[in-house]
Amino acid sequence: MTGRNKWISLGVLALLIALLPLFFPSGYYYRVGALIFVNALSVVGLVILIGYAGQISLGHAGFAGIGAYACALAPEHLGLHPALALVLGAVVSGVMAALIGKPILRLKGYYLAVATLGFGILVSMVLTNERGLTGGPDGMNVADLGLRSLLRDMGWRLSGGEFWYMVCGVVLLVGAWLALNLFDSPSGRAMRALHGSEVAAATVGVDVPRQKLRAFVISAVYASVAGSLLALQNGYITPDVAGFMHSVEMVTMAVLGGVGSVLGATFGAAILTLLPQVLTVFAEYEQLVLGLVMVLVMIFLPQGLLPSIARRLKGRDE
Amino acid sequence: MSKTTTALATFAALGVLAGAAQAEIRLGVSVSATGPAAFLGDPEAKTIEMLVEQLNEEGGINGEEIALTLYDDGGDPNKARTFATRLVEDDEVVAIIGGSTTGTTMSILSVAEDEGIPFISLAGAISIIDPVREYVFKTPHTDRMACEKIFTDMQAQGITKIGMISGTDGFGASMQAQCKEVAGEHGIEILADETYGPQDADMTPQLTRIRNTGGVQAVLNPGFGQGPAIVTRNVAQLGFEIPLYQSHGVASDAFIELAGAEAAEGLRLPGTALLIADKLAEDDAQYEVVTTYTEAYKARYDQEVSTFGGYAHDAFALIVDAITRAGDSEDPQAIRDALEATDGLVGTTGTYSFSPEDHLGLDLSAFRMLEIKDGDWLPVE
Amino acid sequence: MDALLQFLFSGLTVGAVYALVALGFTIIYNASDVVNFAQGEFVMLGGMITVFAFEAGLPLPLAAVVAILITSAIGVALNKLAIEPARGAPVVSLIIITIGASIVIRGATQLVFDKQLHRFPSFSGDDPIHVLGATILPQSLWVIGGALAVFVGLWIFFTLTLTGKAVLATANNRVAAQLVGINTGWVMTLSFGLSAAIGAFAGVLVTPITLVGYDVGVALALKGFAAAMLGGMGNPKGALVGGLLLGCFEALTAGYLSSQYKEAVAFIVILGVLFVMPQGLFGSKSTERV
């Protein structure tokens, strides 16, 4: 990917975020948009882990859980401002990823999958069981960010939906920009080299464990920030955010859109966020259709939706 | 998503296209019809769909039919919040019923409060209505009331020391906490406090711990789903000679079948009139509403009613009653005010009277202590 | 002492269920390198179909056979419709395909049957058997016996029969297997059918103990997966030992430490084992090909 491509990707993303609201018939669409951006953010993180470095994780919802509960707990117990709590959550997630990543990333394929899965389940178990602190399975309230009322005092009135649409959109842009920069950096190239073959990468001097760990930590921070934004936006959080199905959902979004690219990740997040909303038409057939879509896309568009479509547009489809 | 898709979605969800020319009352529902809380949400969704059809066939409220928009939030609070936003902003409903679990309820609740839409929750936690929120009501008893009812019965039996085994799902964990809080007030000491996961297959290790705790006079099991049925079987397997108390979470005829009549013999729990519909005296205040609902549900779905479907039944009855009295089906504020003025509405769960200080409106008398005898529920009072 | 025995009885019963799921994982993994996350749904289908066939008036053994046959056919269909067309896809894609398939199976089951919990009678009654102060249900013996029987059957199949060796050969090197005349497509069909049948068999055995509903498969798949990885993927001995160990860890933790964190302890043990033995307890070392 060249530098020009990077700015095209960012430009497309920025235009979409800015222009879509012109077509929104009601406030509900802002909510869906904000959700897409939050999901896309954690999926961009997974693009770095899965797409760049070729590692898998079935436990990233655990980091989303850490980020979310940092925003719920830190303001209440440490008196931190929610925005700082988001940063704290990201730091804790990063440190945690660094600690467990070291031994875990020696594992490969399904063994890595089960190890990350175990980590995610441990986090969600702590959140569920430590009722005195986290409110248990019923969840807990999250303090307001306070930024919206600040803007209101400055004379800028925004509905909750509009406000979170903007915040999440901006954070996604920043996240995408960082990820695209990483892609072309020496570290990004090293990650992509080890994706091809670890042995080959090692022989040309790539510090394989170090690059894997770096990708793991970065993706954990992305997931954590996304979890924080979700918590702040909803004002209420339950351990579901750290659940196994959420991890699967994140990975599916990444692969569905096309795990190699940031734009593909956003596309995947959009599809899988919108799908349940559209599928309400099918009422009790919803689950069936959702599963079918997952299977069919993976079979017929193994590169993910966006790369496959792009290839078709360029007429290079065999 | 295009506007047509949404329009299509709404129409399909309505299922009622006939009489579209008439004015409609837009009612929104978000329950957990699938997912881990489907045990609650499935009968709730079925009940409301059935009742809306019935009401529209009878001509609706003051000549206006109900247009129902029902979403399945799968027990996920994040989805529930999105659907609540959609109900309010896009479907423009005048009232919301739903929130099968406490988590989903809390998500819907903040949307309802922000937008000024009356919302009747179907979840148990006391925190939903305490402190009282302007637009939020609920139909199920609180977990605390269930604990109090059980402890009162234990006191009458001379039981003072008990062991608890609770599910780690929202229902079990919340009731576990509430019971521990009110136990002291009833002179009950909890000597053993065990838990199990909602999908666990065997609870004999936890029960063995309880049995080996000296002085335990009874076992209490807050939970719903398969857990309590397995606990009941395990208690029988281990040959406990002390009484077992279950919660209102298992109050359905299906439970006796799952646990086995033999294992469940002598078990006690606080239930609603719904479970003993066939044994109610004809002059019982709830006789008519309970038998009508039970028979209609059974005829329509060929399934036994459960307490949870009953909560949805009562929520719908409360909304219908409020809209009828409000006389204005367009104004959420008027419906909320009418709802708060509800006085003596007889439901399957109990008799509801709301006030500005009380948005639950049930008292302990709504619970009936039941015992399983020869494979059937028997009121013990 | 009687408490310890009780915990072990519980652990072995639950562990035998995990082992049966893990054995199902093993067969498919051996034939195709795919970890089939829909394995738990086979267990669910075995239970559900038996329940409804039984309620429709079939005698229980016949209902069980019907359930196992139908589930087996669904397993074959899964291979033909979803796995074969995606041959060569990366691990993540295969995980998503099988998870997607499990969502489809759950969604279809709730439509065809219902969302209620069900049960059918135990095979030999519910009178507990007393052993040194502890008790065990006859149905538990059925489950444990079933797991052992399946294990022995598979061991004979893989080591003594030509077909079984063909499966192993396919797992080792697909192209080489084709070159020596093994019909690898048929091996795949056989593996999926067999694996689904074992899953359904597990469902038939455990339903009287654990009850069955349309959504019991996910938890079983996760535990079975964990058990298979603990033992070492692809090895029937590993699946059996992994399953039984996992069950006993959980039961002993619940009995002696904390029932809230019994799953946590199980996963910590798995992580610990994988750190020391990255291929699981009985897994074979594999080298990465460049």
From TrEMBL, chain A:
InterPro entries: ABC_transp_permease, LivM-like. The keyword Transmembrane helix applies. One of its GO terms (molecular function) is branched-chain amino acid transmembrane transporter activity. The keyword Membrane applies. It is found in: Cell membrane. Its main location: membrane. GO terms for cellular component: plasma membrane. Keywords: Cell membrane, Membrane, Plasmid, Transmembrane, Transmembrane helix. The chain crosses the membrane at residues 7-24, 30-51, 58-75, 81-100, 109-127, 163-183, 254-275, 287-306. It is a multi-pass membrane protein. This is Branched-chain amino acid ABC transporter permease.
Automatic annotation (TrEMBL), chain C:
CDD domains: TM_PBP1_LivH_like. Keywords: Amino-acid transport, Cell membrane, Membrane, Plasmid, Transmembrane, Transmembrane helix, Transport. It comes from the Bacteria. GO terms for biological process: amino acid transport. GO terms for cellular component: plasma membrane. It is a multi-pass membrane protein. The chain crosses the membrane at residues 6-27, 60-79, 91-113, 141-163, 184-205, 211-231, 238-258, 264-282. This is Branched-chain amino acid ABC transporter permease. InterPro entries: ABC_transp_permease, BCAA_transport_permease. It is found in: Cell membrane. GO terms for molecular function: transmembrane transporter activity. Belongs to the binding-protein-dependent transport system permease family. LivHM subfamily.
